[in-house]
Amino acid sequence: MLLYNLKVGQCGKISAINVKEKTLKRLNDLGLCVGTQVSVVRFSPFFDPIEIKARDFYLAIRKSVAKKIVVEQI
Amino acid sequence: MSYNIALVGNPNCGKTTLFNSLTGTHQKVGNWTGVTTERKIGEYKKDKSVKIIDLPGLYSLSASAVDEREAFNFLTKNKPDAIINVIDGTNLERNLYLTLELCSLGLPLVIAVNMCDELEKNSLKFNGEKLSQTFGVPVILVSALKNKNIDKLIKMALNNAKKPQIEGYKSHISKGIAEEKYKFIENLSSKVIVRKQTRAEHITQKVDTILLNRFAGIPIFFAVMFTVYFLSMKIGGFLGGYLTLGFDNLSEICAIKLNALGVSEWIVSLISDAIIGSLGGVTSFLPQILILFALMAIIEESGYAARIAFLMDRFFRIFGLGGKSLLPMIVSCGCTVTGIMTTRTIERASERRMTIFLSPFMPCGAKTAVFAWFASVFFDGSAFVAASMYFLGIICVGVFGAILKNFKPFRENDGDFIMEIPTLRIPSIKDVFFVLVEKVKEFITKAGLIVFCVSVFLWLLKSVGTSGYVAGDIEKSFLFDIGSLLKYIFYPLGVSGWEASVALIAGSFAKEAIVETLNLIATDVNTIFANTYSAYAFMAFVLLSPPCVASLAAAKQELGGLRWFVFMIVFQILSAYSVAIIINAIGNIITYHKGLLLSLILAIIITLAIVFAIKKIKNTKCCVCKGCKGGRKCQKVERFTI
Fold it and tell me: What share of chain B is helix, strand, coil (3-state, %, to 5)?
C-alpha cells in the first residue's frame, strides 16, 4: 500500500521509500524513514499536497512523493 | 577575551526569540520554516564581550538550501567557541536528530530545551538528566518567550567553552544511517518525555479543519487577503486624511510666515511646496502601510502563511512555482526586499531565480500607497481597487511564470516540496509592535532620504528652465522638457500627460515618490490620464515594475550575477509595459466599441483552445517510437531526438 492510498485518519508504518537520493535525504532529515509511523491528516483542495503526521509534527508532502512511499497499514 | 556563542537548531524552534531575549534586539520572528535566512550577530546584553550568533535553522548538517548551508559553513569554518543547540521540547525526536550530528562536530555544546513553559502548561515531565547523561553535555530547560533560565544558559555555555575540551558524545550511531539514528533517538526520547498531544496542537487541528478545509480553504484565503487590504485602505486612509490636512496647514502657515519675513519667493516655494509638501504626501500613507505590515506580520506569526503555501501549492505548480516560492511572495506583499531574502529557503537554483523574478509583482506597502492615491482620485476610494491589484499581481505571477517556465534556466521545478506545517500560535503583540517600530524607522530613512532628495531635485527641475527661475510657469521648466520627451513612451497606455512619465522616473527610486511627484507637479489629473482605464493601466505598470532601489540591490545580491540582474529588470519592465497596454486596450474597447469586446474574448478563447490542442497532440504522440508521450523528444529512445 502506498502512503497516498491511505484515507484521512488512517495510520501506516513506512516500509520503503523509493525516491531519489536527495529527496530521501530530505525526508530523513525531516524525520521520515523506514519504520516511522505516519498518518494522513488531510488532503489539500486539489488532493495535492497532503498533510501527514509523523512523530510530533505535521508535514505537507506532494502526491508525487506520497506515491513513492510504501506503507503497511495499521 | 571575547566569546562567540552560536545558536543552532531546527527551523522554527525559537532560536530568534531566544536571540532577541539574550541580546535585547528585535529581529523579525515568524511561525514558519526559514524566517531567519542570514546569520545575525548580537552582543549579550549583560556582558558585551559575549557575542551571540543566530544561525538559520537547519534539519541536518548536510542540508542543501542556501540558508542551511550558511549555518553549516559557519559552524565548520568559523568554529564558534560554544554552540547552544536549541531544541523544541514539544517535538523532541526530530530535534535530537540534529543534536546527534552536532555532537560529532566536537565543539563545546549545550542543549537548551526551549518552550519549557509549553511543557509545563501541558504537565509534561522532561527528564533533562537522562538526556545529559546520554550525550555527555549539559542540558537546561529554558523559555525564550518568558525569559526563563536564559542567563543560566549563557553561564553554562561559557563554562563549557572555557573548560579544556573533553571528548563529546561520539559513537558509531552519529555516523550511521538514518534508520539507526532514529531507532536510537526513539529509544532515548521515550525515557526523556512521555509523548502526548499538547493543547495547542489540539486547538490547531480543530482550527485547521476550517482553515484548510478542502472546499472552504481557498475562499477563506481570498477573504483574509481582501480583509487585509480593506482594513489597511479604509482605516489607514481615514487616519492618513488627517495627516494630509495637518501637513497642508503646516505648509500654508509656513508660506505665510516666510512671506511676512520677506524671504525671497523661491525659498518659500522650496520649503512650503517641496520639503513640507513632499513629507506630507509621503507621510499620509504611513498609516496604510503600517496597518498592512501589522496584518501581514500577524499572518506570518500565527502560522497562516505556511498554510497558504499548503493550500495553493498545486495551483501555483501549473506555473512552474510551488510551495516554497509562495512564502516569499506572501512576504513580498509587505516588503519585496524581505520577500527576496526569503527565497534563500528554496533549494533549487532555477526555482529560486524564478521567485526572485516574480515576487516583485506582488504589491508591496509602497505600491499599495500609490494604489490608494489612485483609488481616492479615480475610483471614489474603493477598497476593491487595491485588492484587485493584489489579484492582478497573482495572475501576472501565474502568466509570466508559465512563460518563464519555457526557458531552460527556469525550467527545473522542485518536485519534492516537503514543508513543515507549524502549530498555530497567537502572535505576540510585542513582536508585531517591534515589526512596526522597525518599519517606521525604515520609512523615516526612506522618506527622509530618497523621497526627500528626489522631491527637492524635482522641485529644482520644475522651477528652473532655460530662462532661469520660472516660478509658476511650469511649461518653461527643464522638467517639462524632459517629461515631454518621455511621454511618448506611455502613449500606448493612454497616459498622455508628461507628468506621469516624470512620476514614474521618480518612482523608480521608491514607489512612494510617484504620489509625491504627482502632488507636486500635476495641476489637473484628468488631463494626464485619458480615462479611468488608463489610470488603471498606469497602476498595473506601477504594480509590475521593480519596487525600489533597495529591492533591486537585494535582487542583485541574491541572483549573484550582473547578467541575471539586467535580464530581470528588462523582464519586469517589459511585462509591466505589456500588461498595462493590454489593460488600456481593453478599456478602450469597452468605452468605444462594446461589441468588439465579445468577439475579442471569443478570439482569445479560440486561440487558447488551439494552442492547448496543439500542445496536447504534441505531448501524446511521439515521433520516434510512437509509443511514449514525449512529443518531439522521445522518452524511450534518448538519442533520436528529432
Answer: 65, 10, 25
Q: Measured in Å, how far apart are chain B's first and last C-alpha atoms?
A: 69
Residues with Cβ within 8 Å of B207's Cβ and at least 6 positions away in sequence, in order, are B424
Q: How many residues does chain B have?
A: 642
Question: Contact A30/B420, CB-based, under 8 Å?
Answer: yes
ipTM value: 0.94
B204 or B234: which leads in pLDDT: B204
Contact residues for B506 (Cβ-Cβ < 8 A; gap 6+): B454, B455, B458, B513, B514, B516, B517
d(CA A57, CA B11): 13
pLDDT band at B627; cut points 50, 70, 90: low
Most confident of A16-20, B333-337, B468-472: A16-20
At B580, list the grid cell.
498595462
Highest mean pLDDT among B5-9, B22-26, B87-91, B482-486: B5-9
- Contacts of residue B438, Cβ cutoff 8 Å, sequence gap at least 6: B26, B28
Whether pLDDT at B61 is above 90: no
Give the chain A residue whose CA is nearest to the CA of B211: A44
pLDDT tens digits, one per residue of B32-48: 677 777 888 889 988 88
Asked if A71 contacts A61 with a C-beta cutoff of 8 angstroms, the reply is: no
The confidence band for B633, taking pLDDT boundaries of 50, 70 and 90, is low
Cβ–Cβ contact A71 with B under 8 A = no
Distance CA B139, CA B131 (A): 7
In B330-434 the beta strands, taken as DSSP E runs, fall at 418-420
A34 neighbors B179 (Cβ within 8 angstroms): yes
Strands B47-54 and B40-44: antiparallel
Q: Rounded to whole angstroms, how far apart are CA atoms B288 and B236?
A: 4
B285 by DSSP, 3-state: which? coil
> In whole angstroms, what is the distance from residue B91 CA to residue A58 CA?
10
Give the whole-angstrom CA distance, residue B556 versus residue B256. 47
Under the banding of pLDDT at 50, 70 and 90, the label for residue B490 is: confident
Classify strands B109-114 and A37-43 as parallel, antiparallel or unpaired: unpaired
Task: Tell which B residues from 210 to 249 touch A, by Cβ distance under 8 Å.
Answer: 212, 214-215, 217-218
Mutate to test the interface with B, among A56, A59, A61 (most CBs of B within 10 A): A56
- Amino acid B283 reads T
What integer pLDDT is reported at residue B617 of this predicted model? Answer: 62
Q: In this complex, which of A22, A45, A58 lies closest to B421 when CB atoms are compared?
A: A58
pLDDT digits (tens, 9 = 90+) for A14-44: 999 998 888 888 888 888 999 999 999 999 9
The reply to whether B419 touches chain A by the CB within 8 Å rule is: yes
Contact residues on chain B for A58, CB-CB shorter than 8 A: 420-421
DSSP string across A7-24? PTT-EEEEEEE-S-HHHH
The answer to whether the Cβ–Cβ distance between A49 and B417 falls below 8 Å is yes
CA distances from B504 to B166, B279, B348, B422 (A): 64, 18, 34, 41
